[in-house]
Amino acid sequence: MAAPFSWIRPEPHGVHVVPADAWIDPSKAVDRALVTHGHADHARGGHGQTVATPETLAIMELRYNTRDGATPVEYGETIRLKGGVDATYIPAGHVLGSAQILLEHAGERVVITGDYKRRADPTCPPFQVTPCDIFITEATFGLPLFSHPPIADEMAKLLDRLEAHPDRCVLVGAYALGKAQRVIAELRAAGHSQPIYLHGAMEKMCRLYEEFGVDLGELRLVADHEKDDMRGSIIISPPSALNDRWSRRLPDPITAMASGWMRVRQRARQRNVELPLVISDHADWEELTRTIQEVDPHETWITHGREEALLRWHQLHQRRARALAMVGYEDEDD
Amino acid sequence: MEAFAALIDALIYTRSRNEKLRLIAEYLRATPDPDRGYALAALTDGLDFKAVKSSTIRNLLKERVDPVLWSLSRDFVGDTAETASFLWPEPVGAVAQPPTVGEAVDALSGMTRANAMVELPRLLDRLDSAGRYAFFKLATGGMRVGVSSRLAKVAFAQAFDVSVDDVEEYWHALEPPYGQLFAWGADGEDPPDTANMPLFKPFMLAHPLEETVVDLADFAAEWKWDGIRVQLVHVAGETRVYSRSGDDISATFPEMVTALDFPAVLDGELLVRGNVQGGDANDLTQGGAASFNALQQRLGRKTVSKKMLAESPAFVRLYDVLSADGEDLRSLPWQQRRQRLEQLLPRLPDTHFDLSKVVEAEDFEQLAQIREGTRDDAIEGLMLKRRDSPYVAGRKTGLWYKWKRDPLLIDCVLMYAQRGSGKRSSFYSDYTFGCWDGDPDQGAELLPVGKAYSGFTDAELKKLDKIVRQNTLNRFGPVREVERTLVFEVAFDSVHSSKRHKSGLAMRFPRIHRIRWDKPVHEADRLETLRALIRD
């Protein structure tokens, strides 16, 4: 009999499921990829076969213009892979279509979270705690200083600022997949029913969310409107456009950014952000450590992020953990 | 404390100077005494609490948080106060009202190193994260909110519609929380009586000359000496020595306190006597002063030994006179003040004072030649002063210019990089560089010769940061040892011998002049080149 868990092998370019000859979120093209969610650092193009949720596959199709090899798996559905490996896709609460993948083989259970959060998000179903032997987690915000405030507080900050400056606009930098739509949906939930203006790069993803039943209210494109139309409005753009020449067409914008990194004052200053909104689609320190306690695995593997601190936490709590030193997963804008 | 914390956070995120002024002015109008006065003092680094230092905060946190998690967090944030504000455990149960700024200042003033570890938690438990941040910054100084003390004074003037020059003047007569200043500004009461106080008068400052060409018919030239700018004030039998920032440094230079014994306010350069600098042959310069390195031995001392007074006596080379025998001369043109200064000189002991000479030149071109030819290390360059300029506080365009000597240049190799702090906390922005101790093709080694963290653009910083990350050989905490691949052309003002460094020398004001992306490292300069430039 093979050594325990020898069938699952972390490599620099992804987690290799050996008997199935499949890779989880590989950062290079492979024959068979199991993809947790649609962010570009996890979902690359060019795989022979891509196993993912229908939402994730739609996002990938939007990005890479192809459905070749797409194999959809619904939440809760189990798919049998080669070599006697079962894969079940479970909600991760990160973005539309995001999933944890439970792998079962020879009586051993491994969960790979991809990216996740524990807060409610109107654009995707919540993270489900799934007991397992090995829990492979992210640690993007794996430092005790990260504590994401309730999103309602951040929405109130945004709407207060908007109201105080009716002749200006608030330009919110938000990741084009997930963050942007969540911010819009939360604004709607907070009672903001005015049209929201979009940078052109946001449009297709927002339409795709709508196709999957997420209501985003009235959206308009900045390109279709005059400066004066946008006074007193919220405008959403990718973070890269915040200090770009593009923003000159806006009416005296107040620069905001929706990101977990905004917690640290100088990070916000570095990006010339005047209104930092601490909003993240990743687990903060409390969520990460609570999740590990609830899942209660024999061992935690940490794919990427601030792994040193999370390793230290495991040591302090007499838990086993190792860092995988994966390359290519980093999310400067989240 | 909530309003103060909100002000601090708003200032951090505000780029516009006008908006900063508006925020501070609004706070000063809306906040009662003594909170607003202490807040103003905090913004201008006017508070100092002996019992609370950065190390106090660190120790306080390490009692409550795992030291490894603390260090990792501190490294990430790049700021002890902010990290501590995040990691302080939230109190459980009912929380008392947050302290006012005044209450916090009173508590901090009363603390000793011994009881700070007990007293601080009581205040911290009453604050939220933003409040803790503001409190730590208040306690340890260094707000880093992009507000200079001048800006704060301008904001005060705006808040109460008074003259900023008056604010500057009264400011130095008062101590935090500046009750009289607010009584005068906000409530229209009489200003503080400053006639009989040896007060600092704000210095007149110069703009860099850069591309400007001036007519010597309108402008006089003087040497810009390489010492420290000081103001000597004698009023009512008392003499004070003030530094450029208005700090009282009388105790550091007691010989100057006794040297002035009639009512006057004098502006000059404080230097240390030395015979190394003789001035050059045709006596364009005056000599008699040691280099800045010698002066540095005397700076920052609270007391000064007899030996030091004997070995490195200080004197002041006079530039200007602001008042004499009770008469305010500041509104007179420079030319007339200069005459008054020359008339005063016989009344001053020549052991402790001389006059900074006016540099004579036919025209601007000749002046440029004189500047180029200067090899005296006590000289930083030239000053150009409009002959009809009154003595006004701060930098007024078109009146005074400074025209510094060109820097020395040397090619060095990047060896180590350290993460910056504040806005640069995620960037490797402090660079240590070295020169070869022999022929690099014969196995010579690089020895560090200096460290610089300025002189490059933001775009270059990004590129440098990337190079450091991609060429790391070793990590030592926040420092990375970098593979020897990159040459910096380093500019510096002078170089001196130093026992503290393995290379045996220390550069003054090193900064990155150019990044020599093109230059192979073995073509960088050798130590001998740098040694030949030493002037002690």
UniProtKB/TrEMBL annotation, chain A:
Database matches in Pfam families: Lactamase_B
GO MF: exonuclease activity; ligase activity; RNA endonuclease activity
Domain Metallo-beta-lactamase: 12-175
Keywords per UniProt: Exonuclease, Hydrolase, Ligase, Nuclease
EC number(s) given by UniProt: 3.1.-.-
SMART domains in UniProt: Lactamase_B
Domain of life: Bacteria
Stored NCBIfam families: Xnuc_lig_assoc
Protein name: Ligase-associated DNA damage response exonuclease
Species the sequence originates in: Aurantiacibacter rhizosphaerae
Automatic annotation (TrEMBL), chain B:
Stored CDD domains: Adenylation_DNA_ligase_Bac1, OBF_DNA_ligase_Arch_LigB
Keywords: ATP-binding, Cell cycle, Cell division, DNA damage, DNA recombination, DNA repair, DNA replication, Ligase, Magnesium, Metal-binding, Nucleotide-binding
Molecular-function GO term, any one: ATP binding
Superkingdom field: Bacteria
UniProt xrefs under Gene3D superfamilies: DNA ligase, ATP-dependent, N-terminal domain, DNA ligase/mRNA capping enzyme, Nucleic acid-binding proteins
InterPro entries named among the record's database cross-references: ATP-dep_DNA_ligase (IPR050191), ATP_dep_DNA_lig_pp_1105_fam (IPR026333), DNA_ligase_ATP-dep_C (IPR012309), DNA_ligase_ATP-dep_cent (IPR012310), DNA_ligase_ATP-dep_CS (IPR016059), DNA_ligase_N_sf (IPR036599), NA-bd_OB-fold (IPR012340)
Known EC number: 6.5.1.1
Record flagged with keyword Transport: no
Catalytic activity from the UniProt record: ATP + (deoxyribonucleotide)n-3'-hydroxyl + 5'-phospho-(deoxyribonucleotide)m = (deoxyribonucleotide)n+m + AMP + diphosphate
Domain ATP-dependent DNA ligase family profile: 307-437
GO BP annotations, alphabetical order: cell division; DNA recombination; DNA repair; DNA replication
Full protein name: DNA ligase (ATP)
